[in-house]
Amino acid sequence: MARPRATAPAFPATSAPPSPAITCGNPGYWLVNSRLTFEHGNYAASLWVKNLTNKYYYSYGLNIDIFGLDYLNRGTPRTYGVEVTAKF
User: Fold this and answer.
1) Beta strands in 12-86 (DSSP E)
2) How far apart are CA 86 and CA 64, in angstroms?
3) Which residue in 4, 64, 82, 83 has a CA-CA distance of 20 to 30 Å to 21?
């Protein structure tokens, strides 16, 4: 009886699966960041988002194909936060 083959993890439709082409030269991509700030006197409050579109990309890749491996660092997914500042 044949054993089921392991399948590779699913990648978003907008990205290519890891391959020597990626590790030797990442295709171009755009990242969208946003920041909204409200200031009143010495106080400020900001809402921010990095990678607004949640783009799946690799920030670094190393082709070590001689060992049958690729080393890839995935870029940071969407992050967001709130920032409050006071000036004295």
Assistant:
1) 34-40, 43-50, 58-64, 69-74, 79-86
2) 49
3) 4
